[in-house]
Amino acid sequence: MERRLVKYIDWGILGGVLALIGIGLVAIFSATHSNMALNQGDSFYFLKKQLFAACIGLGLGYFLLNLDHRTLGRLAWPIYYLSLALLGAVLIFGREVNGAKSWLYIGPMAMQVAELAKLGVIISLAQYLSQKEELDTWPSLFGALVMVGIPMLLILLQPDFGTAMVFVGIAFGMLYMAGARPAHLAILAAIGIFVVLPLGYFFILKPYQKMRLLIFLNPYQDARGYGYNIIQSMIAVGSGRLFGEGILQGRQGQLNFLPEHHTDFIFPVIAEESGFIGCLLVLGLFFYVLWRILHVISEARDLYSILICTGVFSMFLFHILVNIGMTIGIMPITGIPLPFISYGGSSLMANLMCVALVLNVHMRRQKILF
Amino acid sequence: MTNKQLETRLKVFAYVLVGIFFIILARLWYMQIIRGEHYSTLAEGNRIRRIPVTAPRGIFYDRNGEPLVSSRLSFTVSILPTALTENREEVYEELAEIIGISSSEIKQEVEKSANRPFEPVRLLRDASPEIVTKIEERRLDLPGVIVEEMPVRNYIYGEFASHLFGYLGKISEEELVQWRDEGYRMTDVVGKTGLERVYEKYLKGQDGGEQVEVDAAGRPISLLGFANPVPGNDLLLTIDHKVQLAAEEALDQQLEAMAKSKYPNAKAGSVVVLDVETGQVLAMASKPGYDPNSFVGGISSKELEEMLKNPYHPFTSRVLRVAEPPGSIFKLITATAALETGKVTLHDRFYCTGKDRYGKRCWRHSGHGQQTLLEGIKNSCNIVFYELGRRVGIDELARYARMYGLGKPTGFELPGERAGLVPDRQWKRENFKRADNQIWYEAETMDVAIGQGALQTTPLQMASAIAAIGNGGTIYRPYVVQKVLSPEGEELKSFQPVATGQLQVSPDTLAVLRQGMQDVTDPGGTAYGAFAGFPVAVGGKTGTAQNSQGDDHAWFVALAPIEDPEVAIVVFIEQGGSGGGFAAPVARKVLASYFNVEQKEEQAAQKASSQGAENESDGGQTPSQEQSAPEEEPQAQELPSDVPALPPSNNTSPEEQEEAEQLDEG
């Protein structure tokens, strides 16, 4: 990498992200070290795997930093079709885990292709939108909606409702930033909430997904079954109080009352063990990183760069809101990970690549004079 | 895009960012700081499970300190709802196969206690070791199924004073609502009837518990605390184990033997033995009965249904819940009234031709010839007592009957005691609509005088009344619990004899009655056959009460030893045909046990007595002949139309249908 560029790296973002990954590693260890059935007898099993994924992710990020992100922009369409191909492949060759075909196995490697697809869609949509002359009429929105709609549909077929919804968040953020009229976006949102959701609820959602939505409204109506997760999660968060029970001391997490507490429900583990103070730290780091991304946007030199960062920003914010929101009972359970913290290699790697894109934008914000 | 536009949009993004983080932090503040304690408590409740340890119920001791009802350890198969996994349906299926309860029933039980997932749902109490072994073997296939070791009730002698002891059953919803404040839980077993019910609060004890740290699967990780259960309080009863056993056996044997006699309908009966000086119940048996142990493991509905369908009501204590005409045993009370009101002296002579001038018959159709009062008692001559009843009148007769405690419950500890009935003028006025039915007829007085008509007494009332004859005139309330003792033996409650009445009767009168009773078991008396050769002098009175529903009821009451009575006994056999023939022999066996009459001695004596009975039969005044009397008497020709004192034949009162011939024998 060119020396000149290195000094333009936004160390704040990188530092914040690394700190979040570090917190995530501790939380993952805490959540899994005593669960022998899950960790196959190795207390550090998940920690090591996550650390490995982080390294790969950083390596990939480093690789991306060396590319001018505009190079990726030129490859937007191949990237887009590759994303669709992966999403299609997972539906055909994917292995079903927990009722959804999300995993594609290539040799010994397994990846959740939807995580990569998010990155692909951000890049290609940014390129597409940055080329549009105008976005303030309905027909001008159409192309973008189709572009986002196809991968969403493929992900819904897995089915993975939560990840599909992330695309909505990404699309809305990018469209707004690209100049779509707020009124149009509001109408689209209204259609989504009042037409598509009810239709989906009655014709597409599986019973367990319906149940999750209903349980969100009143978790205690099925405290032993579907409501169990949300109740246990809230107990864990609440019982952390100000200072928490201490690292590795959380009662809910350590005794496995919390479900999936190294992946989707990692936040309650942190909340229980480190209390409000710990939550403040995590949220502070997230806020700082996101705030810096907005700063990167403000200094970006072209619309394409702006839209890349906007997509990444929207995606992170959506993940944080929905993931933490579900653990504290203000969002329905949708099962999407908390960026950098939840255990999951594909997600971590994809997120690190997203960060690399943002850093890339920041590094190359000024015209570089040779 | 202009810089201004970008700035505006960036602002919007910043607002959204700040807004979302503000909401999340506010929510976290609320949950962790404001409601933190609440959630912390919930987490504690999640982690720490209190596994109840059932306290053993109090023990029933007989008067000599011998345990009659205790507790033993047993295995209970339960399901811990929190520990159930996704495959619960399979677990139900598999478990159903092992314990023989259908999987749908198991499911239902588990769902019933859905709001208390930490409490074990008890499915099979007192499981056999084979079942326990099977479950242990398939442990891994049965997550959520646990085997608890807990004490269960042990009725040591099975069907033994079962009506007195009562039985246990799962707490009902109403009971739970009523007793919840006293620490009762849905999984509890409580006394349903008898002493188990009446003394429930004393017997229950206090359940202990283990505080166990568990993981999400409900698996215990470590024991945090243990609270020992406090056993229930014990009851020291007045029951004498030996006498009770004799009563149970004698009654059983007699009813069994009677199935082949001419009174095959005799399927039910009761025995009660009282200490005359205190009213303490030494024995109290009722047949048919049941084995309360069969309720311990949870009785099958089929079994229960069968018992409930039994026309002889095995759950009904015939000592206190059956009130029937006492028949001739009431003659003792008629005699009391006549002597006390001066309507008769010991020298008065009566003459029995087998029929009086109104056409009322003596049980002995050939007549007893000339009779004194004492001979009237000895022979149970109806003619004598018709006359005495006529002389005394219903008002005095009823007064004395009530003085003996008849017509109202004795006040015994168990609920459901019948009051019986002492009919009199007022009763007729109050219970009959038509004016001519409200009139008290002299014929009715005469019926009451021989223990018939509308008169009804329970065996327990009669026992208490007879005891008063033996103790100089005090009516004691029968009772069966002497003391409530703590498990350490400390006396928590003590019950003293309670006199509920005093006979306003001279000692001479009581002496006459006892003399009369003694004569009954002497040669020539109506119970001589049953007591011939018995080493203790017993004073008795036989009764055979007419029963419109079937064969006559057999009664026998006795005091022993008659010269200084210790115990009063009443034997009552429904449709037993003859008091002297079938009830008295039961009393003999029971008294033999009370007086420790040696088995051999008793066998020899009984042989002699049966010979005696045969001899008597030759002599023309025997139980067997007496037994035949009611049958020989045609029921229809009872009301000679020329009797002025008799009520009109269209009378609707039930007692009149049977009033005509009070065929009574000794």
Care to give the gist of this entry?
The complex is a heterodimer of chains A (370) and B (666). Chain A has 370 residues and is mainly α. Chain A has helices at 3-6, 11-32, 36-39, 45-66, 69-74, 76-93, 113-131, 138-157, 161-178, 182-203, 207-217, 226-239, 251-254, 266-299, 303-327, 345-363, and strands at 95-97, 100-106, 109-112.
How does this model look, in words?
- The complex is a heterodimer of chains A (370) and B (666).
- Chain A is mainly α.
- Chain A has helices at 3-6, 11-32, 36-39, 45-66, 69-74, 76-93, 113-131, 138-157, 161-178, 182-203, 207-217, 226-239, 251-254, 266-299, 303-327, 345-363, and strands at 95-97, 100-106, 109-112.
- In chain A, helix 2 packs antiparallel against helix 4 (45-66).
- Chain A is globular and about 55 Å long.
- The two termini of chain A are 15 Å apart.
- Chain B is elongated and about 140 Å long.
- Chain B starts with a helix and ends in a 9-residue tail after the last helix.
- The A-B interface holds A 173, 176-177, 179, 224, 232, 234-242, 251-252, 255-258, 271-272, 275-276, 279-280, 283, 286-287, 290-291, 294, 297-298, 303, 306, 310, 313, 317, 320-321, 324-325, 328-330 and B 1, 5-7, 9-10, 12-14, 16-17, 20-21, 23-25, 27-29, 31-33, 35-40, 42-44, 46-47, 81-82, 114, 117, 213-217, 221.
